[in-house]
Amino acid sequence: MKSYFLLNLVLAMLLTSSLQAQNHSQANEKQQKRQDKNAGAQEKSSAKKTSKDDIQNTIGIVGPIRIQVLPDMIIVTGTDRDEVKRVEALIHKLMAVSTQTLPKNHIHKLKNAHAASVAPWVQHLYDKNFGGRQGKVTVMAKSQSEVLIIGAPEAIKEAVKIAKSLDK
């Protein structure tokens, strides 16, 4: 699942950069066509150049690069070494960031309240007050006196504060 998510992020980033490059290429192509109209003798050579660029842009999202996702690895292959290295660098950056944002589990022990009563309130109050800013958390009763909170570390801290305030 993590590899699939990373692949989607990589492809989205590469698509964006590819579209920017394509827009730049189209602008250059328009400028080239204007110049070719003024210099009629160069028209045939520019048509060959344009068609070659068009073919390269239709090979794939990132040109002649192939990305294959396996359960335990991502394989990047292609004929342009610089492009392959660029894709690999993006994947490594995304993997580093994703390990920082992996959800954590926290079990909070309640002193007075019943977990089945507190958990839905913690979830509701967190979603209403922090959900958009801190990220999503999932809160559920683990036992009669324990609440399981799953989410990013900063989000868990806020949910624990709410649980403590309700446990009086």
Main attributes of the structure:
Ribosomal Protein S8, Chain: A, domain 1, alpha+beta
Instruction: Report, as a whole number of angstroms, the end-to-end distance.
Output: 40 Å
Helix content: 55-70%
* Low-confidence sequence ranges: 41-61
Number of DSSP strand runs:
5
Strand content: 15-25%
What is the structural class?
A: alpha+beta
Short recap of the structure:
This protein is of the alpha+beta class.
Strand and helix layout:
Elements: H1 2-38, H2 43-58, E1 65-70, E2 73-78, H3 81-100, E3 104-109, H4 115-129, H5 131-134, E4 137-141, E5 146-151, H6 153-166
Antiparallel strand pairs: 1-2, 3-5, 4-5
Question: Can you characterise this structure?
Answer:
The protein has 168 residues and is of the alpha+beta class. The chain has two domains: 2-100, no CATH class; 104-166, Ribosomal Protein S8, Chain: A, domain 1. Helices cover 63% and strands 17% of the residues. The protein has six helices and five strands; from the N terminus they run ααββαβααββα. The chain has helices at residues 2-38, 43-58, 81-100, 115-129, 131-134, 153-166; strands at residues 65-70, 73-78, 104-109, 137-141, 146-151.
